[in-house]
Amino acid sequence: MRTTYLSGFLLACLCAGVLVSCQPPAENKTLASEIEQFVSALEQDIAKFDGNQTYLNSEQKTYNEKNAALKKKLGKNDSVYNALTKAHQKLVDEHENKLAALKDLAEASKQLIPKLLDGSFAFDRRLIEEDFKGGTHEGKTFDGFKQKAEKLREELNAFMPRHEALDAQIKLYEQKLDSLERASQVAETASSPQRPKPRRAK
């Protein structure tokens, strides 16, 4: 009976020891919490940038349609409008690529969290911290996921002002084209021979 009691006691102590050893260190929990907060804020920004991407795609579609209509009307591309349309397409593509890179960094940061909280594996917290925050290798500093994401976020925030500047140029040129068309119509009307007014019968 006593042997059974001691065996049970030792087993309980052993299990307790295993449970304690499987708990991640406090430093790991702190870093995991920091990464979680960063990813949460980043995902909110990504949702905003997704909305911007949808808007930019819609604007590009409008420019493409106007450019195609203008080409059909003139029989060739209007060099200025075509160049402006291509410049905006380049902006749209650049925004899309940077947004995809930001999403990849958010996912990569998120994948660090389970490693930090898994006490059953001997992950080196310092290496994970360098992945996230950057570090120094052979005297040269390198960016981690956090710095890379922050740079991309700044660059993505600058796209809407760039779009607005291009949009203003496009609209200004559209107004110029409209003015030229109206002037041409007026000139055609003025040069057309006027029909003589019928004389009234006496």
Task: Walk me through this protein's architecture.
The protein has 202 residues and is mostly helical. It has one domain. It has seven helices and two strands. Strands 1-2 form a two-stranded antiparallel sheet. β1 and β2 (140-142) form a beta hairpin. α2 (26-74) runs antiparallel to α3 (79-110), α2 packs parallel to α6 and α3 runs antiparallel to α7. It is rod-shaped, with a radius of gyration of 33 Å. The termini are far apart.
Round the Cα radius of gyration to an integer and report it.
33 Å
Biggest sheet strand line-up = 1-2
Euclidean distance between termini CA atoms? 142 Å
On the 0 to 100 scale, the average pLDDT is: 85
Largest sheet descriptor? 2 strands, antiparallel
Shape category: rod-shaped
Q: How much strand content do the residues show?
A: under 5%
Low-confidence stretches: 1-20
Number of domains: 1
The beta-strand count equals: 2
Helix content: over 70%
Q: What string gives the helices and strands in order?
A: HHHHHEEHH
Specify the structural class.
mainly alpha
Q: What kind of assembly state do the chains in view correspond to?
A: single chain
